[in-house]
Amino acid sequence: MIASPCRQICDIHPDTGWCVGCLRSLAEIAAWGSASESQRQQIWLQLTDRAQHPCHQSAVSAPLKSSL
Fold this sequence. Notes:
Number of helices: 2
Mean pLDDT: 87
Distance between the termini: 9 Å
Radius of gyration: 11 Å
Structural class: mainly alpha
Order of helices and strands: HH
Shape: globular
């Protein structure tokens, strides 16, 4: 099972719409519980790219570690 990227830092960035803790959108957060393994893998892959976004360079203090 692929673990949730949630880091218990739940705040939505106003410019990107992504959580500053896990970098997921509200739709991805809501869908996580019923998402297939394939869908979860796709979300994790997107998080790596999102972590490089300028809006999140200072917001995310530690890199996300994929459970893939």
